[in-house]
Design goal:
The chain has nine helices and six strands; from the N terminus they run βαβαβαβααβααβαα. By secondary structure, the chain is of the alpha/beta class. The chain binds adenosine-5'-triphosphate and nicotinate mononucleotide. Adenosine-5'-triphosphate binds next to helix 1, strand 4 and helix 8.
Length: 217
């Protein structure tokens, strides 16, 4: 019988700021898919978007506050320690060098990110290093042709594959997302309205103390 590997999941993002949409998604994936660890991975200098107006340190501090009383989710700061654009493939290579191949690593993302995957740095190597867990919304559309459709055809797998193989599968998981975005939170603050109840109270206190998002950030 095939043995079961230790399973580590990563949930990467800009987290500018972290909100309940991110936190619920990470916690649900960990619990439903039974990962041994779920690590939230703030990016330093996001590769495919404008540099955030709020420092990496402040985005990290807000994430640390959000996770302070949560034993199920961990903060992984490795991308903040690397200079230059943050590429996921570099992070996964670093993790593999540390952990070897007796561990299953899953990188979690939304379907939107999967559709943009062919633009990621050295994207063909991602599945040699990790599985992808792709969260879709009810009524989602998987592409029928193109590079992503071919990728799905070759790599689509089940939960059991993630538990016995180190990398190389794509698991599609349907999940309802909370309708919250960091962009929405920033624009509420900028227009003088409150984002209370969309993110943890301690994160809101941090934003207010440091006067974040009042101008274009
Ligand atoms: N409401 C949500 N529920 C679950 N996952 C989310 C939600 N919003 C974003 N995500 C996912 O969280 C990860 C990190 O996203 P990111 O930090 O860009 O947050 P965001 O709220 O989408 O930010 P922005 O509005 O600035 O684009 C991505 O994989 C994204 O798909
Ligand atoms: O490696 C890349 O080229 C790459 C391109 C776009 C996004 N990513 C990663 O995808 C995750 C979500 O990104 P974002 O921009 O939606 O917050 C985050 O961990 C990013 O580092 C990675």
């Amino acid at each position: 019988m095939a043995s079961t590997l230790k399973t580590i999941a990563l949930f990467g993002g800009t987290f500018n700021p972290v909100h309940f949409g991110h936190l619920r998604m990470a916690l649900e994936l960990k619990q439903v898919l039974g990962f041994d660890q779920m690590r939230l991975l703030p990016s330093h200098q996001p590769a495919h978007r404008a540099e955030p107006g709020v420092s990496a340190q402040a985005r990290r501090d807000m994430l640390a506050l959000a996770l302070e009383h949560c034993t199920e989710l961990q903060l992984d700061e490795r991308e903040l320690q690397r200079n230059g654009p943050t590429y996921t493939v570099d992070t996964l290579e670093e993790l593999r060098a540390e952990l070897g191949y007796q561990v299953s690593i899953s990188f979690c993302m939304g379907l939107d990110s999967l559709l943009g995957l062919p633009a990621w740095h050295r994207w063909e190597q991602l599945l040699t290093l990790a599985h992808l867990v792709v969260v879709t919304r009810p009524g989602w559309q998987i592409p029928r042709d193109g590079e992503v459709a071919e990728l799905l055809l070759r790599h689509r797998g089940e939960l059991a594959d993630l538990q016995r193989e180190a990398a190389g599968r794509i698991l599609l998981r349907e999940q309802t997302l909370l309708p919250i975005s960091a962009t929405g939170i920033r624009s509420l603050i900028k227009s003088g309205r409150s984002p209370q109840f969309l993110l943890p109270e301690r994160v809101l206190d941090y934003i207010q103390t440091h006067q974040l998002y009042k101008s274009e950030q």
